[in-house]
Amino acid sequence: MKDSKGHVTVVVRRKFLLGSALSVLGGMHLTACGGGGSAMAATSPSTTPNTTPTSGTPTDGGSPVSPDNQLRVSLPTGSETNYPLQFGRPFAAGEIADTPSVFLDGVIVASQADVKSRHADGSVKFAVISVVLPTLGTTERVLSFGNQPRPTVTPLPLADMLANFDFDATISITFGQTDTSPTTVSARAMLAAQTDAGLAAETAAGGVQSRYWTQGPLCTTVLLCDHKTKAFDIGSNATRAIRPMFHVQFWPTIGKYHVRHIVEVADVTRLKDETTTTLSFTTGKASPVARLTQTSVNLYAGTWQSRAYWGGRELPRANIKHGVAYLAKTRALPNYDSSIVIHSGSVASYASDWATRPQGLGAKGYWQIAMSSVGGRQDLGLMPKWDCVSLYSGAASMQAICERQAEMAGSWAFFFREGDSAKTIIGTTSGQGRILSKLSRPTVFLHDNNNYWSQAAVADRFKVDGTLNMSRDGWQHDVAHTPGTFWWMYLSSGQAFWQEKLMQLGAWSLFVVNPGLSFNSVGSGSSNKSMILNGVQVRGWGWQFRNRARAWWAALDGSPERSLLEQSLNEALAQRYGLYAISSSLDSHPIRVSWNANYMAWYSNGPAQPRPNGLAFWEGNGGYTRDQFISSVGVPPDDWGGASTAPWMQNFITMSVNHAVELGCSAALPLANWVGKQATTIAKSAHPRHLADYVFPQNKKDGSYYQNLDELYGTWSFLAEGSTPPSMPAESSSGFPGGGTPGTYQVTVEGYGAIAAAAIATSNGNPDQAAAWAVVGPWSRSTYYFNHDPRYAIVPRS
Hints:
Blueprint: E1 70-74, E2 80-90, E3 99-104, E4 107-109, E5 111-118, E6 124-136, E7 141-148, H1 158-163, E8 169-175, E9 183-186, H2 187-192, H3 196-204, E10 211-214, E11 220-224, E12 243-251, E13 256-264, E14 274-283, E15 289-299, E16 304-310, E17 319-321, H4 324-329, H5 344-354, H6 385-393, H7 396-408, E18 424-426, E19 429-430, H8 487-493, H9 496-508, H10 538-554, H11 560-580, H12 590-597, H13 599-602, H14 626-632, E20 644-645, H15 647-663, H16 669-683, E21 696-697, H17 709-713, H18 752-762, H19 769-781
Antiparallel strand pairs: 1-7, 1-17, 2-6, 3-4, 3-7, 5-6, 8-9, 8-14, 10-11, 11-12, 12-13, 13-16, 14-15, 18-19, 20-21
């Protein structure tokens, strides 16, 4: 039934359905990013269940399989009994053949492992691990991992969820100053509307409606949502643009539940800015507790807001050291230098400063919310600085900052969801409720701040009620500075919410290219369904490819999202292979063939002779003027043709593409080696400190690229000596400099020299890496301030 505002009101019926659920389906491995890029029909996950079935102490969990695969956990203060702990865990290929088991201080304990993806050999790649620690205090407990047979899955029955917990959670919203009657959506009502069989079937089908995320005796997680009938959507008018959702963990052995409240304005068939709302979140059924009440909350189209709570007493957050070296071994993270110990003053400073900052809905924290603002800052890099400090320190205070920072990122308008039942995501698979697909809305053009969203063809255009506010309280995003957010939150927590945000962020990148049919520097080539990355700033290519690769890695095995994202990676690579005449496994890809045949159209404003390209210049014609070159570097070469490029931007691409290779996108390796050649070549040259130049000469007067450094250095009086460039001091023993007050959260290491060293360190497939690292490694090893900011503290795997 509907109320006077057109909202659906749900009557809670105590309907208890008993019986066993259907088996949950695991995943089939997709070949990593190496096919021909054609659309793949979505495959159903495998029928192998993945979750430990009983809470008794297992007897067949083997022994710890890898001495370096350990997680260390403790409380900052005090002690707890029966402490619930859930975390995400990547595993190295071949280590866990079937299902992870858990050892606590060397003794096997009851655990639950929900496997989300597997390596090509069938071993576990990523799992969500749940355990209940009998006791936890300030002394570190060590968790290690073994292998056990794949068990039968048994989710907690719906009747038990409703009967055995004081469970409810509500989202209440009033609209505007004159609305005095809040519209409330109840998680309990949404749960009671489900059935055990229905939840199991939706999970098994890889669907988008309410379903399980984890299942078993220790923790059953239910994702409560309705993306098809949209019965729970609410709003100030009949558009009902706001979608409330809840992600609920039920821990039956300790009688606790954890709930994430979510409100999003993402459905592209009903977008509307809902401003000046009052938003309230509660938990509890018998005596509901208000967890958040905030006025003047602006819910803009393409954004979301979310907070999470334990029902009843809020549990203290634990310190969790996931193990830098082991996570690097899994390739989920680059090879960060595991010898670094984060400065305790920096962690303490973060905590004390954080306590002074507003943390409500819409607050900005440490984000530069006007994303296109120039200058260095903590959010740039493969991961934001706070995520890296959390990785190294394991501090509970840093985890809290990371989670809230990720929650704050919902105020950018990256986040869209298909709402049209007639649209597909890939092949014939329905896209409704899933991430937005370029294949079904090919003329949508978003780009920076979604500035071109209204220019799509009518059949593809978003349905918008009213005029959208493009300033969004200052939260304006762009292609060139998109942060690597959500990655650490998903890796460390394993929560479905962060997995979906990764995929939505990656899907946004599918729409940043002008859909015009041309082979110039901004067009889509011969098809506006091509998911290439064209017409974006150099560093922007790297950041968007990184986000696609991470979303692809995180997508469930066999899911249509994984197929779509894999195709997008291949197509982005194929275009660059065609432009630069690089040989790869994608040589016969139609996009590679067409861009190779039409490459001169792309270089129309660049050099008259763009190939060969011996120094791997990414741009056709660098955009820096002569005055910018002189002011930042000095006198240019005598035979300079007037075009210069930013090597540090290209180094961001090198890091991102090598990261994608390590995530499993093997088709990207030739591009990684090619783009990284510029940095390794400069490092091996007579003047390696040119690595830290702001700009670098690109074209000669005769209309060709500089093909080697000998011909460049021969006519260039500036040899990167003495005090210039400052971000790579003359004495390598000085290391790369840091900025900010030592011993505080303010310290950053983000000079161009440090970025270049990190790019070389990630270039593990490049045959010149060892020689280049022999030159730049001494600077990296001597960088004291990496113990405050380890974003670029990466070392070669060899």
